[in-house]
């Protein structure tokens, strides 16, 4: 786990940044960037899948 942790740890940091951006866009009163929000949500799903695959492959 420790060796492979270095490979998927950046995904955790990316998830933190993406969640922060999603929360900031969701809290704005007037949000006309629905396309941007959808892109952020899709990106966060890709990072979640990446972490899941990394954990599954660690045996």
Amino- and carboxy-terminal Cα gap = 9 Å
Question: SS-based structural class?
Answer: mainly alpha
| Major β-sheet annotation | none
What count of domains describes the coordinates?
1
The beta-strand count equals 0
Judging from the principal axes of the Cα atoms, what is the shape? elongated
Low-pLDDT ranges: none
State the helix count.
2
- Rg over CA atoms, rounded to whole Å, is 14 Å
Helical content band: over 70%
Mean pLDDT: 80
Series of secondary-structure elements, N-terminal to C-terminal: HH
Q: Give the DSSP E fraction (strand runs of 2 or more residues).
A: under 5%
Defining key terms:
59 residues, mainly alpha, 2 helices
Structure, explained:
- The structure is a single chain.
- The protein is mostly helical and 59 residues long.
- It has one domain (2-56).
- 83% of the residues lie in helices and 0% in strands.
- The chain has 2 helices and no strands.
- The chain has helices at 2-27, 34-56.
- Helix 1 runs antiparallel to helix 2.
- The chain starts with a helix and ends with a helix.
In short:
This protein has 59 residues and is mainly alpha-helical.
Summarize the SSE layout with pairings:
Elements: H1 2-27, H2 34-56
Helix pairs in contact: 1-2
């Amino acid at each position: 786990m420790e060796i492979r942790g270095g490979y998927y740890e950046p995904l955790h940091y990316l998830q933190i940044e993406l969640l922060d951006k999603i929360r900031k866009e969701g809290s704005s009163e007037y949000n006309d960037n629905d396309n941007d929000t959808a892109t952020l949500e899709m990106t966060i799903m890709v990072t979640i899948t990446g972490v899941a695959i990394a954990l599954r492959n660690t045996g």
